[in-house]
Design a protein that fits this description.
There is one protein chain. It contains 13 helices and twelve strands. The protein is of the alpha/beta class. The protein folds into two domains: 134 residues, Aspartate Aminotransferase, domain 1; 232 residues, Aspartate Aminotransferase, domain 2 (3-Layer(aba) Sandwich), CATH 3.40.640. The termini are far apart.
Length: 381
């Protein structure tokens, strides 16, 4: 590909009616929710147009989606998918919820990291599960000692429990290693905890890190992974997800075989993404890699009291604003003074205090204006 992907300007983007572009006043630059400022790849657009031209607006079947994802997983990660252990879901979080409903009961514990994607808390609470937080290390990696304590306390008395794994991790961008996932699996087996791995950001991983699905842990018998093309190919509006299970979870799969389905438009477009858009994805990752490095350089120039580690994956950056001297939540401060909308760190957990999440999936021009505005707001105090 020769044309840039992340090249839309604010005038073009402000014609959109998605949540990202309608939640705030017109003078605010939105850099919060995980929507990319792109036009989806040509094969995706063509597949959706052809579907509408046919009047093909009925119900989906799983087979095309499973086959497309299996090919993608084999090409990108060397992962051989067992297509008999895959089920459609409306999207990743609904897939997680369905598994939670079948593997835990009201009052059971759902362990999550701190900090972590806010729906990891709100969805279990919606299902009347008890949320238990286990802090990540200061480097944003899995803390096995904290997990062991949480797993033990959560399963006391023979209660069931689940652990929601963000892999790669949102908001820190950490990619869990095979060694970390293997240790997690051993710990989960020892305590009878069901691991459900949200792997929606897996296609966006930078050089120096390698994505490994939780289901690729050697000898794994229990656990689930949930996938979708929504984040990496900018298809949040077109709902489709896949729940994938380890060999020992057949009894659970039997109970969700006829559960909620995706939309046909979602399946059609996600199939196109997973089969015909590798070159588009490769270029996107190159542009995002440049953006993550641009943010670090711009922060050093305009807002040196804000620190941001380079994420190993995702198009999200976790801004450490604790040394910036901001009173209260940094995201609120930047919204009010810089007119930039970020995700508030505290919504990700107690360890998010003093942080904010930045979406870098936009043009370098817009990203530069965002950081310049943030720097100016700090200097104007």
């Amino acid at each position: 590909m020769s044309e840039r992907i992340l090249d839309l300007d604010l005038a073009q983007l402000r014609t959109r009616v998605s949540a990202k572009w309608t939640a705030y006043e017109p003078d605010v630059i939105p850099a919060w929710v995980a929507e990319m400022d792109v036009v989806p790849a040509a094969p995706i657009r063509a597949a959706l147009a052809a579907m509408m031209e046919r009047g093909d607006t009925g119900y989906p079947t799983a087979a095309p989606y499973v086959e497309a994802f299996a090919g993608f997983a084999l090409r990108r990660w060397g992962w051989v998918i067992d297509d008999t252990r895959a089920r459609l879901a409306p999207d990743v979080m609904m897939g997680i919820l369905v598994v939670l409903l079948k593997t835990t009961a009201p009052g059971d514990a759902v362990i999550v990291a701190d900090p972590v994607y806010p729906p990891f808390v709100s969805f279990p609470e919606l299902a009347e599960r008890r949320v238990v937080r286990a802090a990540l290390t200061d480097a944003g990696r899995l803390d096995l000692d904290a997990l062991a304590t949480a797993f033990e306390s959560s399963t006391t008395g023979g209660r069931r429990a689940a652990y929601l794994l963000s892999n790669p991790h949102n908001p820190t961008g950490v990619v869990h290693t095979l060694e970390e996932l293997t240790a997690l699996a051993r710990l989960a087996d020892a305590h009878g905890v069901t691991v459900i791995s949200d792997e929606v950001h897996a296609p966006v991983v930078y050089d120096g890190a390698s994505f490994v699905s939780y289901l690729q842990v050697p000898g794994l018998e229990r656990g689930f992974a949930v996938h979708s093309a929504a984040k990496a190919f900018s298809l949040a509006a077109l709902k489709a997800g896949l729940v994938l299970a380890a060999p020992g979870e057949d009894a659970v799969l039997e109970r969700i075989a006829h559960g909620p389905n995706a939309s046909l438009s979602g399946v059609v477009t996600h199939v196109a993404a997973f089969t015909a858009c590798d070159a588009w994805l490769d270029q996107l990752v190159v542009e995002l890699d440049a953006n993550r490095r641009l943010v670090q350089a711009l922060l050093a120039e305009h807002a040196p009291t804000i620190q941001a580690a380079l994420p190993e994956a995702t198009y999200l950056m976790w801004l450490d604003c604790r040394a910036a001297g901001i009173s209260g939540d940094p995201a609120t401060f930047f919204r009010d003074t810089a007119r930039v909308a970020l995700n508030p760190g505290p919504t990700f957990g107690e360890r998010g205090e003093g942080f904010a999440r930045l979406n870098i999936a936009t043009s370098p021009r817009i990203l530069t204006e965002i950081i310049e505005r943030i720097g100016a707001s700090l200097n104007a105090r």
